[in-house]
Structures are given as C-alpha cells and as structure tokens.
Amino acid sequence: MVKRELHEIGDGLYAWIQGDGSWGWSNGGLVADGGQSLMVDTLFTGALTRDMLDAYRLATPAARQISILVNTHANGDHTFGNHLVADARIIASKACAEEMEERPASVFRAMIDGWRDLGETGRFIHETMGAVFDFSDIAHCPPTETFSGHTTLMLGGRRIELTEFGPAHTRGDIVVHVPDARVVYTGDLLFSGSHPLMWSGPIGNWIAACDAILSWDIETVVPGHGPISTKREVAEMRDYLVAVRHGAAARHAAGLAWDEAAFDLGWSMSDDWLDRDRIIANVASVYRELTSGAVDPSREEIFRQMLRFRAGAPCPHEPGAGCTCGTPLHNEKRIGLAGGRR
Ligand SMILES: [Zn+2]
Ligand SMILES: [Zn+2]
Q1: From the CA of 129, which ligand is nearest?
Q2: Which sign, positive or negative, has the C-alpha torsion 111, 115, 118, 121?
Q3: DSSP three-state, residue 33
Q4: Rounded mean pLDDT of 173-196?
Q5: Over the stretch 15-71, which tens digit does the pLDDT of each residue have?
C-alpha cells in the first residue's frame, strides 16, 4: 500500500502527501484560519479523498466543514473527489472549468472500464491507473466560481493569492500562495522526483511559472506529486524544462522526427526521476509548438511510444520495419547518445 501522510507545514497549514507521486498519486493541502478552512485539490477517488478529509478533521476543527475548495487544474487526480465537499465554494480558473466539462469523471470511467477497446491508450491507462485505483466513487462536481489571471481570497484573517500560469501542464493551471506562511501549493506545475507531464504547453509558460515562483518570498513548496519541496526543486524543474526545450529544438533542427527526438533525448538524460516515459509526451508537445501544429502526434501514438519506451525499446521504430538504428548512417542523425542510457 502506498504511504499516505499528513504533514503540518506551518501554523494552520497542512499537506497530504501520497507515496512517491507516480501516476495518480497526487497531493492535497489545507489552510485553516479563524475557524474556516480552504482545501487545495481533492484526490483521484472518493475513498482516497475521504481518508484525506478524515486526517484534516483530526488535525483541526476548522476542517469539519470545508469553506472553500480550490482546484489547481482539471485532471481527475485533483478533482474526482470534489463531490465530497460539494457544499463548499469551489474555485478554479475559467480554463480549468472548461477543461473539466470536456473530460468529466463519467468519460474517464468509461475509458477505464472499456480500456480493452481503446488500443494503446487503453493499455496505458489500464496499466498506470485502471489496475491501481478503484474508480467506483468518482463524480463530476465542477467549480462554482471561476477567475482568470489572478485573484485574492480572504480566509479568516489570512490572505491567499491564486495565480494562473497555464496553459502549461493543462489548460488552466493555478497555484495557491499563502504569503504570511511563505508556502505555495503548486498543483502539477511541480512534480517532485518524477518527470513532469506536459499535456498542453507551451513550455515557455511553464518555465515562466517556475521563474515567478522562484522570485517569491517562500520557504515551502507543496508539489502536485512527490515529497514536500523547496525552491531547489522548482529550480530543478525549470532546468529540466529548459533542457527539454533545447534538446527537442536541436533534434528538430537536425532533422529527427518527433519520436526519434523523444527516444534520443529520453535515453540521454541523466536524472534519476520516476516516470521517464513522460519525456515522450513532452517532446511531442514541444514539436507541436515548434512546427505550429504541423507535427501533431495523436494521444494514441504518444501512448504507444510511451509504452515502448517504458519497456526499454532503444528507438521508436518497429523491429524489422526497415529500422536502421545502430548503423553509422542512422547514428549520424542521433545527437544525444553520448550521455548513454540509464
Ligand atoms: Zn496530478
Ligand atoms: Zn495534473
């Protein structure tokens, strides 16, 4: 069983951390003041969210009734438990609310249940999520209030700043900043200890988000996935994103196809983070941007290559399909292998 733990990270501030933060194992947060409480995100399932709420209520009486829920973005691992606090004000960015409408819990559950009919996408979501979580208690419970750009909330005597940085990880990413406690809850703009996943991009927005957070007077950073962090991990994420952007652009200029660039860059990076196969999706995103959409790999194709990369395939080509990887001619095109794979 994945270890799930409540951490007190300041006066009236908490973080709920789930395991190593791999697929679907997201974090949540709670801010309490003057008998009121603000929750940052719900979790992937009703049961996981219920356990988190129980822990919050044991920690502080203010959590008996959640006053405000903020969803950092639309992904199910941050929203599918919203129905458990349906009486709260639910706040998100306008773009997040729109994305939630397009991919409600019912659509996700139909995909999870019908994975066998969905080809590589189905195999991928089954392997990473369907076989791991119980989705019998998830629901679509959308925001009741939305904003764009920036907004300030008061909770008891406490000022809380919500800032939108998306589209980056998803279309409407926001972060929750509690200035008096020098804490920021980043949602999935920070993955700590694992490769981030860029569904939307552009990557420049994500780098700008890291720069902004690094400029704030903060001490503690609660990532969307992985252990409680500091500015150091935000700086590492920034460096990673810059490296992906440069690495993908160099390979594009050298004439590599998006999937060749993704494998080449993926196997040459020297970090020890989890879920390295996400580099495939991230490079696809950068190629889409570099080519103004002329290169636009489908999710199906991206998942297919992610599965192959996970299984250790050295290149994106099917064996026997005229693949010349390993020959000097082909290697001339590959520019990242010097670092070796690990
Ligand atoms: Zn997440
Ligand atoms: Zn996410």
Answers
A1: 1
A2: positive
A3: strand
A4: 97
A5: 999 999 999 999 999 999 999 999 999 999 999 999 999 999 999 999 999 999 999
Place of tokens 């590599």: 256
d(CA 301, CA 233): 31
Cα(73) to centroid(ligand 2), Å: 7
Spatial distance between the Cα atoms of 170 and 234, rounded to a whole number of angstroms: 18
Q: At 326, is the pLDDT very low, low, confident or very high (cuts 50, 70, 90)?
A: low
Give every CB contact of residue 171 below 8 A, 6+ residues apart in sequence. Answer: 74, 95, 96, 98, 99, 200
Query: In b/e form, how buried is each residue of 297-330, taking b as 16+ CB within 10 angstroms?
Result: beeebbbbbbbbbeeebebbbeeeeeeebeeeee
> Which ligand number lies closest to the CA of residue 99?
2
DSSP annotation string for 301-316:
HHHHHHHHHHTT-SSS
274-324 pLDDT per residue, tens: 999 999 999 999 999 999 999 999 988 999 999 999 988 889 988 776 776
Place of tokens 């639309």: 74
Which bound ligand lies closest to the C-alpha atom of 197? 2
Give 198 Cα–ligand 2 centroid separation in angstroms: 9
**229, 223 in Cβ contact below 8 A?**
yes
Whether the per-residue pLDDT at 329 is higher than 70: the answer is no
Q: Which residue, 320, 307, 317, is CA-closest to 278?
A: 307
Say if residue 341's pLDDT is above 60: no
Measured distance CA(239)–CA(289) in Å, rounded: 19
Strands 4-10 and 13-18 turn out to be: antiparallel
> The tokens of 108 are what?
């996700």
Q: Which of the ligands is closest to the CA of residue 23?
A: 1
Report the relative pairing of strands 174-178 and 158-164 from DSSP bridges. Answer: antiparallel
Virtual torsion, Cα 215, 288, 111, 135, nearest 10 deg: -10
Instruction: Note whether 198 and 284 are within 8 A (CB).
Output: no
190 CA to middle of ligand 1, Å?
9
